[in-house]
TrEMBL record:
All residue ranges annotated as the Bulb-type lectin domain in the record: 30-153
SUPFAM superfamilies, A to Z: alpha-D-mannose-specific plant lectins, Hairpin loop containing domain-like, Protein kinase-like (PK-like)
A Gene Ontology cellular-component term: membrane
UniProt-listed GO biological process terms: recognition of pollen
Name this protein carries in UniProt: Receptor-like serine/threonine-protein kinase
Native source organism of the sequence: Corchorus capsularis (Jute)
Amino acid sequence: MENRTKLLLPLQHVLFLTFLYFQTNLCIELNIINPGQSLSGNQTISSQNGRFELGFFNPGNSTNFYVGIWYKKIPVQTVVWVANREKPLHDPFSSKLQLSEKGNLVLYNQSEIPVWSAESSSNTMNSIVAVLENSGNLVLKDSSNSNPSVMLWQSFDHPTDTWLPGAKLGKDKISEKGYISWRNSSDPAPGSYFLGLDPNETGTYFVLRNGKRHWSCGTWLERVSSFSNETVVDDYTTMSYVSNSNHEEQNVYIYSVNNSSVLVRYVMNISGQVQKLVWKDDLQKWEQIWAKPKDQCEIYAFCGAYGACNQYSRPLCKCLPGFEPKVHREWNSDSSNPRHGCVRRTPLQCNEGVKDGFEEIKNVRLPASDVSLTNKKSLKECESACLRDCSCKAYSYNGNCSIWQEDLLNIQYLSYGDNLGRTLYLRLSMAEIQALRGKTKERIEWFTIKAAVAIVTLITILGLIFVSTFRMTNFSNTTNKAIDDVLIVFKFSDLRSATKNFSEKLGEGGFGSVFKGTLPNSAAIAVKRLKCQEGDKQFRTEVSTIGKIHHVNLVRLLGFCINGMKRFLVYDYMPNGSLEAHLFYKDSKILDWKTRYHIALGVARGLAYLHDECRECIIHCDIKPENILLDADYNPMLSDFGLAKLFGRDFSRVLTTMKGTRGYLAPEMISGEPITPKSDVFSFGMLLLEIISGRRNWEIILEYGTDSTYFPARAANCISNGGDVLSLLDSKLKGNANAEEVIRACRVACWCIQDEE
């Protein structure tokens, strides 16, 4: 008996320790919290598919703890939902998340004071359970209810910054579903930015900062009707819009993932961008495949008060003249968001009876919240009005006088090709004005010294050749270089790495082949390997000109690379490919008329900018669907502009190799006559006819009741003879189009291609 007791004692210890283990690691592989059970410390529950985990966590460098949901099986902790985002905990082991006997899920701090709760409002309290579903949705359910879809409470109705597949954006019968950024990477408290739908405009979504809308985008991706349950599909997700259904008022978007094994999420991030991110197993990181606003300088007051943003320089933000950072640590990196802005180095002297002065800041986007003074008829009157008002911080005059009495927000330095730039007169103390003038004088003197040195250097031809060769060919620096604060000179090794040795080919045209790449910051790029053999100097000169051209309907050139005789151009990547694919490929998504009309207008605007608004008229010479690229919102972007001039004498050879180009070339381009902007107009007319018909102009397609007439001629006859213009419309649209817009588009197309006016 004594020996038997000795054998039982170790067994009792094992059973007791096993019991403790399960008590301290509650339901590690289960997804349910039952009534009376709780989570504490490092205890967690997981969804049945093992994708999501719920428990206590501390974000970034914070010593505070929160209850949240995150992806379980990826190495980078990615939190998608936070319960107590405004009420942090200090000790997770003495705090607990408990499902009470009343059926409420309650979070208690170390003093056993409730800091957060989810109330089920059910009469069957003893059967309520908390379940972490496979979608990442935490729900309260009645386990006795035979219908598992009935939810008494769900985290999807109380989102934080992350929009998961299956969750809603917009307003349903329960509440408004909006997503609010974290305050910073270590603090999940509600930040400055909000993603939601505009209650006054169906289907419009926007981002706010301190109540100011800084970005909106029509209907989602500008592809979804506000009056039907249409869906939008891309490589990763299917986006659906739902308005009123079953007599219930709702206005929401929901998206699903096309491949259930792929992790996709939208995030309203701390810097003011809405990002679409995909987890890449091979890279072991989240890859950004879409973001709005595209440029950070578009984010309202991104650089804070008296800070100005410049999209073409690094860092993006800098203080206005006479100001310095308010919180210096916010300005330490390119990715920083200095929301506290800048402060004056020297106070204004208005109340001291001393006049202040003004510093002229040219070519900027003017600050927000101006006050218009309609009775001031001249620049001098406008300046005097500002000086007399001690609250006036700046003024601007452009035929009308505007002054600013509040802190200056939302200033942006613009490129000199941008017609939106204005001159701002910034009010400063006279001491600060004199200090700035002194610095200007010093800069002039220093420039004179450098100029003298340069003249001496020019005498030494060997030195000049050495410097030139060094600048052209030496790319051994650890980072890529920028020239004129506009273009980046990429190293060939970096481009080869970004494109995985040019393995993913997007297409090929007369100017060269295009490959997809990804930069170290996860930004997607398109790399065009050119066929030209221009010399380094001429190539750099022409590329520099192209790089200074900026328009909402032109693909942005990021930089270039010279590697021996090889030439590369690096552009923004357009995720929706070319217009050609969407018009002519059988398996592509059908573009509705509204989208086609939007694309036609965008192409026209881009061409008008190249012809009339650039310092030097640029003739594209190759307008066709293949060179119309579509961004994530299906906005049209002209590509390959400026390349005709870059190729110079080789352009005639390029024309002969362009597949299908002769269907868009103006007659004078084929006959050898001088090329003018009218050549692009002809090509635009041919493009417009294809947008209308959804087929190649030269294709012979026999349809019931029609003959095989050359389509442009058929369209011209229809317009001239008052025929049924909708019969020209792409049959895939089934007549769903604005008839007046179709007639207008057909007329413009025929005017563009007619032989005689």
